[in-house]
């Protein structure tokens, strides 16, 4: 995941389990960068899930059309059977 390094940062308060933060410090991990990467990954995942939910009906209709009619221009794209 590519995190924008030049974007403005805003201080926030987070509650993180003590054992997790202790292990991160022991491994010399930057807790802010790790938290930002985790939040960015969660945002990306939530957007993907929302897109799939919002487009489920269209995806289903498209797949049904493919199952019924096959690929358009199949003869131009794939070798003949």
From TrEMBL:
Pfam families: CcdA. Keywords: Toxin-antitoxin system. It comes from the Bacteria. This is Antitoxin CcdA. The lineage of its organism: Bacteria, Pseudomonadati, Pseudomonadota, Alphaproteobacteria, Parvularculales.
């Amino acid at each position: 995941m590519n995190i924008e390094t030049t974007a403005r940062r805003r201080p926030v308060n987070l509650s993180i389990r003590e054992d997790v933060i202790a292990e991160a410090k022991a491994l010399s991990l930057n807790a802010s960068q790790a938290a930002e990467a985790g939040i960015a990954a969660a945002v990306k995942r939530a957007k993907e899930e929302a897109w799939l939910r919002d487009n489920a009906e269209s995806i289903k209709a498209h797949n049904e059309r493919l199952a019924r009619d096959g690929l358009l221009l199949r003869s131009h794209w794939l070798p003949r059977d």
